[in-house]
Specification:
Elements (H helix, E strand, L loop, with lengths): L3 E12 L2 E12 L3 E5 L6 H9 L6 E6 L2 E2 L5 H7 L1 E4 L11 H6 L12 H14 L16 H13 L5 E4 L8 H16 L3 E6 L2 H7 L2 E6 L2 E7 L5 H18 L12 E9 L7 E6 L3 E5 L6 H8 L7 E6 L2 E3 L4 H6 L2 E4 L3 H5 L6 H6 L7 E2 L2 E2 L1 H15 L15 H15 L3 E5 L7 H14 L4 E6 L11 E6 L2 E7 L5 H8 L1
Parallel strand pairs: 3-8, 3-9, 6-7, 7-8, 13-20, 13-21, 16-19, 19-20
Antiparallel strand pairs: 1-2, 1-4, 4-5, 9-10, 11-12, 11-14, 14-15, 17-18, 21-22
Helix pairs in contact: 13-14, 14-15
Length: 496
Amino acid sequence: MKNEILRLENVTLFTNNIKRLDHINLSVLEGEVVGLLGEHGSGKNIVMDIISGAQKPDSGNVFFKENRINAKKQLQIIRDGIGYVEQGINIIPELSVAENIMLGSPELPSWSLDKLWLNEKAQGMLDLLDIHDIDMDIIAKELTFLQSKLVEIMRMLTRNISILVLNTPILLSNDKETNLIESVIKKLKKMNISVLFTSTKIKETMEIADKIIVLRKGMSVGAYDKSLFNEEQLLYSMIGEEGMRKAMQPVNNDRALNGRELLKIKNISSQIGLNHIDFTLFENEILGIVGQEGCGMEMLSDILYGINQDYTGEIFLRGERVKIRTPQDALKLKIAMIPKNLRQEAIIDKFTAGMNITLPSMQRICVFGTVRQRMEKQFVSRYCGQVGLDASQVNKRMRLLSMESYYRVAMAKILAVRPKIVILNDPTANAGIVMKKEIFEWIGQLSKEAGVLIFAQEIEDIMELFDRMLVMRKGTIVGEFLKSEFNKKIFMQYSN
């Protein structure tokens, strides 16, 4: 029988007299992969914070190899043999990949830094996990989100850990990334390293996990071994009867398409990435531009929002040629954008939710350059109400809030700008089932006042919103489809 590596017994936690966790019990065996499944706000992140020592439970205990570890510092947790990868990116941007991997390793010499030794050790980690697309010598800030997470995982492996705790969205938005993560986790399992990870995605979790524990509203509502995995049962456990009703409701997307041109892109090209891009977005239209990672969608999105100026071609807004050199130019033209990576690109963690919402719209709450607090309060309250953000969260710093709140704050920011064009990048990536449905409803409402441009790699669910769909491959639009022609088979055929 396998030894137990990690155990939580009746862990309970209150925040401001609100019960956030209610007698949570879970265990992880040696070499076992356990998925902690739940919607945003279900309590997953709090459980992980308690395991890491970042939060202390009000009652209950955490045991690692039968030793109680409550309220230890993270450094001590790592020394004990628990590798913890947190939600945000935790690498040093200006150091190389090799330096980041070996950072804090017990093997790292204290007297000098031998680059040859460093690269050799780091390459050993890459080879161990069979990772071939990360260059050890590049600066870490050039890595993608997934590559950064893999570097953090490899850093933990240099420290002789027994369990890897992943409090981060590892099941990402495309099959290639998910397959890579699955491969890495299988290799960890072969090394007899246990893995505990959080997820909102049922199918992917079923593929990877040996056991799934479901949380809902701070309570453990089910624990399932692999032989008992059932997608419908897991969905019901995650969202409950009320959530099931919401998920089954059709998206209200009724609106008139008048056929008037809103945005026209003409012959947009760049030295690396884009080749003669042409398309039109009409008023009140939801236009999907879809493709695989690296097809050029991100570059095109950045050009339309003024982040990238390295291109040739023309942009027309209601027939008038415009220059969008900065995001400020875009906002003046009533173009708003939500990037894919909310935490790093759309939200300022150290600001409150209210401050994040008002930031792009300061002119609306200022009189002679001074913020009027009463106007600010009314302004924030209005848009929080529209996206269902709880009033108690308005004055909290974003880093203390759940991922669900990040989505709501990002939506409120967009509404506050009163845009005519909205650019969304994989808007449902890593969203839970109920949150995804709310995002669909919100996009439908937005399209009654604005044209909506959605860039997406993950299309199975969101495809139902599109009025038209363009497929990109290798920097070129290779197909255009009307709603009646949509299906995932066409997407795969044209995008690969």
